[in-house]
Amino acid sequence: MTVTQLSAQELFRAAYDNRYTWDKSFPGYSADITFKDGDKIITGQVIVNAELKAEVLGVDDESAKKVIHGQAWEIAIHRVRRTFEETHGANTFCYGATDENGAVEILMGGKAEGDRYKVHNNIVTLVHRHIHGVVVTINTFGVHDTGEGYLSHTYDSVYHEPKTGEQRGGVSNFVDEYEKVGNYFILNRREIRTETAGQVTVQEFVFSNIKLLEPVAA
Predict the structure, then answer these.
(1) CA 192, CA 212: separation in Å to the nearest integer?
(2) What is the C-alpha separation between 143 and 123, in angstroms, rounded?
(3) What does the alpha-carbon distance between residue 146 and residue 75 come to, in Å, rounded to a whole number?
(4) pLDDT tens digit string along 28-72?
(5) Which residues, in sequence order, are bridge partners of residue 151?
(6) Which InterPro entries does the record match to this protein (predicted)?
């Protein structure tokens, strides 16, 4: 019996296509936001439109507004549906090591030379990417299975200098929760615990009263 092994590209493509994304009909949404930053609590409203542009309303604190906007933008950008070719068409793929948990390393060449990923049970469990002058490393520990693809539930994130490997900032641990609104899964809570030099800071973003926007008439 001949066992046909998937190529590294095929294995990675299957996990890439297994991520949950919003379709082209996604109308955008509005939500109330409660942002807790240590002892500080700030409320306002977030709107993410059909083009996935984010807007924060009712928040006077400029630094808090910037943080909330950054989260809303990041939430939306990860739900954009792009084909594998659009994202990875200029890359090559080869197998690296398999870790003790059975996660398979995928080493990138081509445009993404130096980047690497791990895939386990059709889920990307490690992202190690050069982006905007830093290296970001994300380990995913748990996911939500939506039935239409997976969403990260618990994961961490850390940045390093590309040349020296020196860590930039602390290690952040995330917990993401989602709810289904209409046909779409939308983040309703994110907790970020960041440890820097032994000090832990906690930020929590709670999105409530989430409503899809009316589709814009063509």
Answers:
(1) 26
(2) 9
(3) 16
(4) 999 999 999 989 999 999 999 999 999 999 999 999 999 999 999
(5) 144
(6) DUF3386 (IPR021809)
For residue range 138-162, what is the model confidence (pLDDT) as tens digits?
Answer: 999 999 999 999 999 999 999 999 8
Q: Which residue from 146, 142, 196, 198 is spatially nearest to 174, judged by alpha carbons?
A: 142
C-alpha 170/C-alpha 193 separation (Å) is: 10
The residue with tokens 């289904």 is 180
Token couple for 121? 């049970």
